[in-house]
Specification:
57% of the residues lie in helices and 0% in strands. The chain is mainly α. The chain is globular, with a radius of gyration of 13 Å.
Protein backbone atom coordinates (compact mmCIF):
# COMPACT_ATOMS: atom_id res chain seq x y z
CA UNK A 1 0.00 0.00 0.00
CA UNK A 2 1.30 3.41 -0.93
CA UNK A 3 1.65 5.99 1.80
CA UNK A 4 -0.66 9.01 1.71
CA UNK A 5 2.11 11.30 2.96
CA UNK A 6 4.04 11.73 -0.32
CA UNK A 7 0.83 12.33 -2.22
CA UNK A 8 -0.01 15.41 -0.14
CA UNK A 9 3.55 16.64 0.58
CA UNK A 10 5.42 16.38 -2.73
CA UNK A 11 3.07 18.31 -5.06
CA UNK A 12 3.05 21.47 -2.89
CA UNK A 13 6.83 21.28 -2.47
CA UNK A 14 7.31 20.96 -6.23
CA UNK A 15 4.87 23.81 -6.84
CA UNK A 16 6.72 26.08 -4.43
CA UNK A 17 10.11 25.08 -5.82
CA UNK A 18 9.24 25.72 -9.48
CA UNK A 19 6.66 28.48 -9.06
CA UNK A 20 7.95 30.65 -6.19
CA UNK A 21 5.49 33.45 -7.03
CA UNK A 22 2.55 31.28 -5.91
CA UNK A 23 1.12 32.37 -2.58
CA UNK A 24 2.07 29.76 0.01
CA UNK A 25 -1.37 30.00 1.58
CA UNK A 26 -3.01 28.87 -1.68
CA UNK A 27 -0.54 26.02 -2.16
CA UNK A 28 -1.25 24.71 1.33
CA UNK A 29 -5.02 25.14 1.03
CA UNK A 30 -5.09 23.34 -2.34
CA UNK A 31 -2.86 20.44 -1.25
CA UNK A 32 -5.85 18.13 -0.55
CA UNK A 33 -6.81 18.44 -4.24
CA UNK A 34 -4.08 15.87 -4.91
CA UNK A 35 -6.48 13.22 -3.60
CA UNK A 36 -9.16 13.92 -6.22
CA UNK A 37 -7.46 11.55 -8.65
CA UNK A 38 -8.15 8.75 -6.18
CA UNK A 39 -11.91 9.19 -6.48
CA UNK A 40 -11.70 6.35 -8.96
CA UNK A 41 -11.52 4.00 -5.98
CA UNK A 42 -15.30 4.38 -5.93
CA UNK A 43 -15.54 2.59 -9.30
CA UNK A 44 -14.70 -1.11 -8.87
CA UNK A 45 -11.73 -2.21 -10.97
CA UNK A 46 -11.03 1.24 -12.39
CA UNK A 47 -8.29 2.58 -10.10
CA UNK A 48 -5.38 3.85 -12.16
CA UNK A 49 -7.03 3.02 -15.43
CA UNK A 50 -8.58 5.78 -17.55
CA UNK A 51 -10.17 7.69 -14.64
CA UNK A 52 -6.96 8.15 -12.67
CA UNK A 53 -4.77 9.19 -15.56
CA UNK A 54 -7.11 10.96 -17.99
CA UNK A 55 -10.63 11.77 -16.88
CA UNK A 56 -10.07 13.38 -13.49
CA UNK A 57 -6.99 15.44 -14.50
CA UNK A 58 -8.79 16.76 -17.60
CA UNK A 59 -11.86 17.64 -15.56
CA UNK A 60 -9.69 19.53 -13.06
CA UNK A 61 -7.87 21.31 -15.87
CA UNK A 62 -11.20 22.35 -17.37
CA UNK A 63 -12.43 23.70 -14.04
CA UNK A 64 -9.23 25.68 -13.52
CA UNK A 65 -9.41 27.01 -17.07
CA UNK A 66 -13.00 28.18 -16.53
CA UNK A 67 -12.08 29.94 -13.31
Amino acid sequence: MVSWVPQIIYPPLVALAFLPALPRKWVILLAPVTYLADLDYLVPGEHRVWTHTLLIPFLLLGIVWLL
